[in-house]
Amino acid sequence: MVIDCLVLRGQQTSPPISSTEPRIPTRLLRISVFIALLLVSLPIFFGLSFHRSKSLEAPPVDTDSEMKAQTLTLRANPTGADACLRWSHQSALVKDIVYIYGGQARGSSDQDSDTWNNNLLTLSLTSDWDAGSPPLKALPQPKGPPAVANGYLWHNNNNLYLYGGLFSDKPVAKPTTFSIWKYDIAAGEWSDITPETSVSSDSGSKRIERAAEGAGISVPQQSKGYYFGGHLDAYTAEGWSVQTARVYLKSLLEFDMEKNVFRNITEHGLEKSGVPERADGVLLFVPWGEEGILVALGGGTNDTFSQLNVVDVYDISKTQWTKQATDGPAPKYRVNPCAAVASAADGSSHNIYFFGGQNLVPYAEQKQYDDSWILTIPSFTWIQVNTSGQNVPPARAGHSCEMYGGNMIVIGGYVGQELSCDSPGIYVFNASGASWTKGFVASTAKGNRGESNGVLAGPAEYKVPQIVIDVIGGDAYGGARVTKPARAPDQDSPVASGKPGDYKYTTISPRPTGTIATITNADGSVTTSTSSGGPGGNSGSGSASAPIIGAIVGGAVGGIACLVALVLLGAYIWYRKKLQELREASARVAESNGHSGRVSESGLKENSGTLGGIEGNESAVDLLGEEPSFWGVLLSPRRSLRVVNH
Length: 646
Prior knowledge:
The chain is an alpha+beta fold. The protein has a domain at 196-442 and 459-472: Neuraminidase (6 Propeller), CATH 2.120.10. It contains eight helices and 38 strands. It has a five-stranded mixed beta sheet, with no helix packed on it. It has a four-stranded antiparallel beta sheet with strand order 2-3-5-7, with no helix packed on it. Mean pLDDT is 77; it is low at 1-24, 42-77, 444-457, 507-520, 528-547, 594-625 and 642-646. Residues 482-507, 522-541, 590-611 are annotated as: Disordered. Keywords: Iron, Membrane, Repeat, Transmembrane, Transmembrane helix.
């Protein structure tokens, strides 16, 4: 409708056109070009806006979904974002939002029952915040997903999957039939997908149980989730008698999030490597080898604990367990610690940050820890972080850690009897500087000249800390000189060769000014860093949004160029047609003055004031001595092709 009005207005205000003057749609041509450019520009604008909203903001909530969620609310949420204490929960980092589900939480220091919950909280990492006032947000409480603790929240880039967990012991809640629940992040909806799952033909056990207190990890780029160890008892399995002893596990459960297929890995070197039953340890994914490796740390049973001077390593591509001795003084054995991985820009080292946990011996007198350690791989050397003089969080266990760029976010944790509340219970460890900080800083990537680039906004890049460089060599961007385990590896170990191999999900490409490494982290994010050969070199890092936006802009520019070329081609054809009409009109004018014959192209190009070498009336053609140029006709067609009538 707007276009029609513009055209009509152009026709009404144009001067009268003589019947012998060629009708030249000047305004229509200009309006058409303007509309074409507008149509190309709008997708660019909305494409960038849409991408930015997906990568930098929480998913939009549509009205229908919000109303549905409100109707499913079970009860008031006294232990949500404002809990006095939170521990044994499940958490997952998806893009730049941490999701926190269930666990136990107290609304006040004197609460000693009803601590189990199915609260779902979010913690945004898109803006700066102080550790004393993090942007925790409680989402509506739906029916369906059980109130469990010490399970795991698998995730890919679109969904969360709740597996396992303990049911309440005060008051006692009987476990329900095994189920696995999926949370669609974009829709904000939970659904029970148990009927849609199956068990692979090569699974060691065809029966999948709800385990608890095991060690879980997600590998979003492979759409796989893993759960190692844990136990079964009357608070996890339906129909299990309290008179039946707890059963500890040493199997590795794999879940394919694309196919909804379970696989129970109960052999593959478990006996040969002497992998013990355990619960309350941690499992880390390290991008080493073709598919990556899993590293199991800590944990134990009622009688024994896994020492940390020997760790268990699982090769995903070979589905095989091996053991690896570590070097350096190791942390004291413990259960319920937290750990997260940060990789050097060039992939030459992968550093596991390990914090807290507790010792359960003697019984009922457990001691929580507040020490911090780094296990650097492939050296497999333990390095204790000196945190004296820093603002170290109170000792804790049952907390979770999420690595975001160069920051490790510590969430919740049981802090013993001496501290009644630990609210909000969120802490930040600077992995690059190996120090505790007062809050979170949402970094913006810098270009080589140091200017801020909003398009490349992302987490602060990770740099290898000096205490690790002192052990393995290299610099803040990698270049580790220690490329093999310090202690002799098992002959079947995936790290025995000292070569990281061709990991499918990591791209490292050389550049004249250094090395650019694109690392796909265990949380699904993609970090790009530039190594300039030294700590003082320039570097840049960005999220996966940078190449996507580049593709959008590049495609848009190409589309504009193609459209402009088509417009110019059409204009040139129109120009040749009008030029031919001009020649024919000039020939008719010459003929009416007593001259015969058509005006030749050479005649128009002569700059002599004659028509084909014959004297003519200068009023016959306004631009008689010079052929009108293509650009002149395009920019001012009415002036360039004006014919004066007689």
